[in-house]
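Input.
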Amino acid sequence: MTSDPADLTAADHLDAAREMTAANRPYLAHLLAEEAARRTTDPATAAGICASFPDPTTTGKD
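Output.
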């Protein structure tokens, strides 16, 4: 792991998003996934990442 956040890759952010999901921290997972998507060059992959970690503040439970 690097000490400079600018050196982190999309994969690093995606791994961290998965860890936050496992730790029941959905909003942090969402933010990390958004950053992973921004660092991804393929739009379809970026959309898939965002869809996998939706914003918990906009996904209500009925």
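DSSP finds three helices and no strands in the chain.
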